[in-house]
Specification:
The protein has two domains: about 1-175 and about 335-350, Glycogen Phosphorylase B (Rossmann fold, 3-Layer(aba) Sandwich); about 190-330, Glycogen Phosphorylase B (Rossmann fold), CATH 3.40.50.2000. About 40% of the residues lie in helices and about 15% in strands. The protein contains 13 helices and 13 strands. The strands form two sheets. A seven-stranded parallel sheet has the order 3-2-1-4-5-6-7, sandwiched between helices. Helix 1 (about 15-30) links the parallel strand 1 and strand 2. It starts with a strand and ends with a helix. The mean pLDDT is about 95.
Length: about 350
């Protein structure tokens, strides 16, 4: 069977965890997949399929602004013929980035990463909610099979979108254990790490309140933020934003006294698992999928309560050795090879 992967809506360094998913899934399918694969990629991300057979949709507009991306998707939706032709040899099509571009003409699989716009609508503009209603909700309802990244998302998607649970499949994300691994000797530094863009649900404001409380007694501590979009001029004392490469992020995981992850909503939440794989203690919000993903390997807290965040951070640092051991065991449960094999099993349902 030949599986087409439509990656047209990928924007490098903007798509966040979805980009990690697409690239790592493609790599793993290349290593352990049992099907033939053909990826349709935009001209702005010609390497998105990470070595899988690829065709570049050269007519697809290379836009990075929100308005430009919406226009590009709309154009491809209204005139899908040239893009469908590029996938004509595929038996089925998978849309890992949810938005079905080009519009499906064959049995297809859609990955739904979350339904945050339905659960926390106040964090989205009216235009964003309308777009997601059309592009995400409709895509999930019309898909032959739906892949979700956690039991949490499965439950919310079934309830919010009325999906048939028999056609909604949980496939957890993975970790590249060759890249994310503990140092030979742990030498933690007095820094807290939060790798996240400053989106509303990432909850930076309450983290800053908690950090100020901790730092009044632990002035040596620093809070390091990664992820694009932070304004250094607006950050509190002791907080710094860094633009880091993938290798530098791994080093931060290995050196940090604690990863703190106060997000209000996650469909999966890769950073806590990546941190665990590097032997970094984790304090994470008891929200969304994070309790499911972290298990007993993190100190959980109420993300709406800065005092609770501060208490959890202090506890995680104090129990660092125990959390590091628990985290390594927990992270070992998540591999991209397992993710790829699970995708192949779902593709087989459409054959």
């Amino acid at each position: 069977m030949r599986v087409g992967l439509s990656l047209l809506t990928l924007i490098p360094e903007i798509s966040g965890g979805s980009e990690t998913y697409v690239r790592e899934l493609s790599r793993a399918l290349g290593r352990v997949g049992i099907n033939e694969y053909l990826a349709l990629v935009p001209p702005g991300a010609p390497d998105a399929a990470e070595g899988l057979p690829t065709v570049i949709a050269r007519r697809y507009p290379n836009r990075t602004t929100t308005a430009g991306r919406l226009a590009a998707m709309g154009s491809a939706t209204v005139r899908p013929g040239p893009y469908r032709a590029l996938l004509r040899d595929a038996d089925i099509v998978h849309y890992p980035l949810t938005v079905p571009v080009p519009r499906p003409a064959k049995p297809h699989v859609t990955t739904l990463h979350d339904v945050q716009h339905l659960d926390l609508p106040e964090l989205f503009s009216r235009g964003e909610r309308l777009f997601r209603k059309i592009a995400y909700d409709r895509a999930a309802r019309r898909a032959t099979e739906v892949i979700v990244v956690s039991e949490f998302v499965r439950g919310r998607a079934v309830e919010r979108l009325g999906l048939d649970p028999n056609h909604v499949h949980v496939v957890p994300l993975g970790v590249d254990h060759e890249r994310f691994g503990p140092p030979e000797r742990a030498e933690r530094e007095p820094l807290l790490l939060y790798p996240a863009r400053p989106w509303p649900h990432k909850n930076h404001g309450r983290l800053f309140e908690a950090f100020a409380e901790i730092r009044s007694e632990r002035p040596e501590l620093r809070l390091v933020l990664t992820g694009a979009g932070h304004d250094p001029r607006s950050l509190p004392e002791g907080v710094e934003a860094r633009s880091v490469s993938g290798g530098e992020l791994v080093e931060l995981y290995r050196r940090a006294a604690c990863l703190v992850f106060p997000s209000l909503y996650e469909g999966f939440g890769l950073p806590p698992v990546e941190a665990m794989a590097c032997g970094c203690p984790v304090a994470a919000a008891a929200a969304g999928s994070l309790p499911e993903v972290c298990g007993d390997a993190a100190v959980m807290f109420d993300p709406l309560d800065p005092e609770a965040i501060a208490t959890a951070i202090v506890e995680a640092i104090a129990c660092s050795d125990d959390l590091a051991e628990r985290g390594l065991r927990r992270a070992a449960l998540f591999t991209w090879e397992q993710t790829a094999r699970a995708h192949d099993r779902i593709y087989a349902l459409l054959s």
